[in-house]
Amino acid sequence: MTYSQPGVPAARKLGAEEFDFGVVHDRSQFGSAKWANQWDEFSPRVEGEGLVSLWTADMDFRAPEPVIARLREAVNHGIYGYTKRDPRHYEIVKSWFERRHNWGVDQATLLPAPAIMPSVAAILRTFTQPRDGVIVQAPVYSPYFQVVRDNNRTLLINRLRLVEGGYELDLNDFERLAANGARAFLLCNPHNPAGKAWTREELESLDSLCERYGILVISDDIHCDIRLNDRPHVVFSSIGEGAAAKSFICTAPTKTFNLAGVPSATLSIADSKRREELFRVMQASFMVNANFFGRIALEVAYTSGDQWLDHLTRYIRDNVNLVLSRAAESLPGISPMRPDASFLVWLDAREVDAKVGGVHRFFVERAGVNLYDGRVYGPGGEGFIRLNVGCPRSVLEEALARMASALSSL
Ligand SMILES: Cc1ncc(COP(=O)(O)O)c(C=O)c1O
């Protein structure tokens, strides 16, 4: 299905130059947090000369050309006033998920949102009470800890089990937490940092426990679009009516198309009462007005970004393969976990970590490479590091060579 809504260019075939992910761009002039090696003025900076920055989760690629072209037109127009999502906006979102993930989401269930984490916070504040338990599965994206704690809820950590170099659910522990005051479960699907795509069976097991103990499920699907193998993305609410009734599905095009700085997100909430209640709360927090550029970027990306995403996925897959082969050849003590989805590779570096007393610092100081310290991801992350492969191959090659050289001196 193509759209020719004014403002959303119809999908067109792109030229090869529009998929040149190998070009190295200098991002420093626009205040890139990743390349400044610091999140914001309130967080510590990672110090080092000429660091290769492969930590926080944005990519070093230009967005799809149709998105850039439309944003350029909007910039040139020069009037950045209030903007409105019309019904086509939601048709575009629906069509994307139908095409890419075979998820026939009912358009009536969709709500607009500024981004994922503010939505998670609003859902927790609306449907749980202070001190209620919220389950998260560690190691995991660290703002999950923050959103639970800073909203005065009780963090219940369900450790994933590390089995033969991959993660598995610990359902016994999940049930123990479920029976001990949990009111909500924050699911990361696919899971960041390991890029694990949860299977239908795994989601069904979680759903049956949540059903038994009356637990709401907030599913963060932000990393769902970059599929690195033939494991499909299974949307939690698609596994059955019970799952749909208890869940909040949070989606965004921001990781997929490298649009984190022009955010826009969409929630799907099948339960109409909860949907209306959340919408009221979001309105009361003035969270529902569209961001001028974010709305445009979402619509054009979801309409015209398929081809770009297919090329990107192949590029990322090759980058992941490069990490795996280099690790086997020249990174002793480092074992990467092959991701099913996303542009993130989780490296088990516990052996090196123990030897050098902190593997993150070791690679910053001895290799000039800044990766994400696994400790940030909570219990189970100690001794791991996360490598962001959303970068040109030459940058990744340089980082891997530097890491190999640092390890060879041990
Ligand atoms: C799992 C996960 N959820 C949410 C986010 C951030 O989403 P947003 O910027 O829309 O709040 C990230 C960014 O890295 C992420 O990895």
From TrEMBL:
InterPro entries: Aminotransferase_I/II_large, C-S_lyase_PatB-like, Class-II_PLP-Dep_Aminotrans, PyrdxlP-dep_Trfase, PyrdxlP-dep_Trfase_major, PyrdxlP-dep_Trfase_small
GO molecular function per UniProt: cysteine-S-conjugate beta-lyase activity; pyridoxal phosphate binding; transaminase activity
Known EC number: 4.4.1.13
Keywords from the named record: Aminotransferase, Lyase, Plasmid, Pyridoxal phosphate, Transferase
CDD domains: AAT_like (cd00609)
Record bears the keyword Transferase: yes
Listed cofactors: pyridoxal 5'-phosphate
Residue ranges occupied by any Aminotransferase class I/classII large domain in the UniProt entry: 87-402
Family: Belongs to the class-II pyridoxal-phosphate-dependent aminotransferase family. MalY/PatB cystathionine beta-lyase subfamily.
NCBIfam families, per the entry: C_S_lyase_PatB (TIGR04350)
Protein name (record): cysteine-S-conjugate beta-lyase
